[in-house]
Every structure is written in C-alpha cells, then in structure tokens.
Amino acid sequence: MTIAYDGVDSSSSSTTVIESKNRFDSIEKQMSDPLTTDNTHNFTNFTLLNAKYQIKIHIIHIYKKMKFISAIVSAVCLVNAVDAFAPTSLSSNLKSTSSNSALNLAVGETAPDFTLQDQNGKSIKRSSIKKPLVVYFYPADSTPGCTKQAKSFNERIASIRKTYGADVIGISGQDVESKQKFAVDEKLTFSILADTNDSVRKEFNVPKAALGLFPGRVTYVLDKSGVCQLVYKELANAESHVIKAEEALETMKASAGASKGGNPFASLFN
After folding, report:
1. Where do the domains of the chain lie?
2. Annotation: CATH topology of 89-269
3. pLDDT per position as a tens digit, 54-99
4. Looking at the annotation, which residues are catalytic?
5. Of 79, 85, 230, 259, whose CB neighbour count within 10 A is largest?
6. End-to-end Cα separation, the chain, in angstroms
7. How far, CA to CA in Å, does 76 sit from each of 66, 73, 190?
8. What does the pLDDT average to over 157-176?
C-alpha cells in the first residue's frame, strides 16, 4: 500500500513509512537528551512535522463532514423531486387502496379519538363532533407556511360550515398560550388544538417531512362517523390543503345526496 506522508510518497526509495517513524523517534530522543546540542533545531522540525500532520488530519475530517452534508442535501432534494411527481392525495375517488398502508390512518379507517385544548382552553373531543370534520396537522404556530394555511382555512370556514355542514380543527405541538396568540394575531374563527407532547400526532402516525427533519403537514377529512375519507400530504404548498379538503367534502356531499334519492341536504338532518 502506498502512503503519502508530509508530501512524500512512501513508495519512493528515499522515504518509507518506517523511515518516517524513525525520523520522529530520533528527533524525540534527541530532544530528551540534555547532551544534544541541536535541540532547538530538532524541536522546530518536530513541531513543524507534527503541525503538518495535524492539519492534514483536520482537513480529512472537514472533507468527510462536507461529503456527509452534501449527501443529506442531495437526499432532501431527491425526496422533494419524488414528491413533486407523486400523487398528492393518497385516495382516489375516496376509496381505500394498498398505497394507504404507508400511514397509520388510511382512507376507510376510523380516526383515533382524542381530547385536546383549543386556543381558549376549551377541551375538544373528536368523537363528540357529529359532523364531517377536517383535521389538519401543521408544523408550528406563527410560521410563514402555517400562517398562510391557517388564513386560507379561515377565509373558507364560513362556506365550509354552511355548504357542507362540516368544521375544521388544526393541530400542532405548541401550547395553549401559543395557540391563543396565533389565533388572535390571525383572527382565526375555528379551533386550533395544543398537542404539546405530540401524542395525537403519533396516534395518527403523521409522517414527517424532509427525511424526518420537520413535522409533517397533513390534512385528514373525516365523515360524521369519524371515518377517514381523504389523506393529503403537502409541506410546501400550505394553501392547497383547504382546496383538497373542500374537494373531498364536495364528493362526500354528492355521494350522500345520491344515496338519499338525489336530495343533497338529507344527510344534514340525520
């Protein structure tokens, strides 16, 4: 094996690995010998050689770290590229398929029950809401993307309630105080819930984004019985979630109308 040390290839006839080691040992021995007359020169050589060696080791470590960081960045870019071409909804025509197995809560399954406090300190129990429900998980209060998402739902909440008899709740890991500030700042008229230990997020098994570096942004649309009708995952385009939720609610409404002899309002009185 060829080893380069101090800029010299060990395969050359003048310098080998053993000779390099002997050179260090000789200088170190001479430095410890009080009778040696050239300790200053030897100490300088020893110090310079050792410094060059340490610098090379440091450079190698930096290079390895840079390669690791580069690999992470490349992987994130690859994931984003794949997501860009993948179907954003895990449901087609509100029917469950095998592709939903990637998530704990799949289309056709009943959502986990939970009780969390909203921005006003009021306890909200999922199973007590006897109407279609949009449950959206978002990364954090008052961040740019989450603010856009909350505002887009807030702009449509009156229509969602009137047209579909449904409601909306948002969930993230910040506490009630953070929720209250966020709701006041953005004048939110729907509940946002404090999942401070991420227990509900874990029950839904909400997938993380960007190789697990960020909490996922996922919307679930449930019917009045709590059965999941849509799972929509999209981190970057936060405002698209309300569009997908309304599309699912519209499909649910049309389906209910067809099953009731064409009366689109019959399901609202059950």
Report:
1. 4-76, 89-269
2. Glutaredoxin (3.40.30)
3. 665 666 666 565 555 555 545 544 444 434 333 334 333 443 333 3
4. 146
5. 230
6. 81
7. 15, 5, 34
8. 98
